[in-house]
Design a protein that fits this description.
This protein has an 8-stranded parallel beta sheet with strand order 7-6-5-4-3-2-1-8. The protein is globular, with a radius of gyration of 17 Å. It contains 9 helices and 8 strands. It is of the alpha/beta class.
């Protein structure tokens, strides 16, 4: 079908490659995370069959329900938690996810450290930065990020891989991506998780290493 998930995945991969080229970056510099939150296993399977192996989920419990089955069927899946994490879900998050993008406070960092030690697992960790300092949104304030990185590294011994942000919907995303890149550079963090379906080419221009694209691949979500 012309408008299948597979064809949309191909279009997104083509747009990523073009954005990388236009930004003077190497092909493959930005990894695609196919955001499968709210979609059922039968919706995800065609994208897996098309070769995609990196996926993002917002909720721990939802991910556990569908990905146990899908991982048994498809090898090489890498699962990213991109939604807010509660400390009481740290055990399940460490067990389920390969990468966690939403570390944003000391309580979460401590809970993850405890579970990583217990389970002898080391998911890659990103700190979520609230670049727009929006009260309703998760993430640490930009001016507090350096101190929080130091806390995670020096006090807890966590290996922080990068930063993540979700810009305000009513502001130009480029300035938020530029701010995140600046904070990452100042703190020697190599990875940047930024950019979604509406703005991932802009994020790639600003150095995104991970882009989180859902609706452009899977179609519109039904939150009912």
């Amino acid at each position: 079908m012309a408008d299948s998930a597979q064809s949309r995945l191909e279009q997104v991969n083509g747009a990523i490659a073009l954005a990388e080229k236009e930004a003077g970056r190497m092909k493959g510099a930005a990894q695609l995370i196919a955001v499968s939150k709210t979609f059922a296993a039968e919706d995800i399977r065609p994208v897996l069959l098309a070769g995609q192996r990196v996926f993002g989920e917002n909720k721990v419990q939802e991910a556990m329900k569908k990905w146990d089955e899908l991982r048994a069927e498809f090898s090489g899946v890498e699962l990213h938690l991109i939604g807010p994490l509660q400390s009481n879900k740290a055990k399940e998050a460490v067990a389920t996810f390969d990468v966690i993008h939403s570390v944003d406070r000391e309580k979460i960092a401590r809970a993850l450290k405890t579970e990583m030690d217990k389970q002898s697992k080391s998911p890659k960790l990103f700190i979520q930065v609230n670049t727009g300092e929006e009260e309703q949104k998760a993430g640490i304030a930009p001016k507090e990020t350096a101190a929080f990185i130091s806390f995670c590294r020096d006090e807890l011994g966590l290996d922080i891989a990068g930063l993540m942000c979700i810009p305000p919907v009513d502001e130009a995303p480029g300035m938020h991506f530029a701010l995140l890149e600046k904070i990452a550079r100042e703190n020697d963090l190599p990875l940047l998780s930024m950019g979604m379906s509406a703005d991932y080419p802009i994020a790639i221009q600003h150095g995104a290493t991970h882009v989180r694209v859902g609706s452009a691949i899977f179609g519109a979500r039904d939150y009912a």
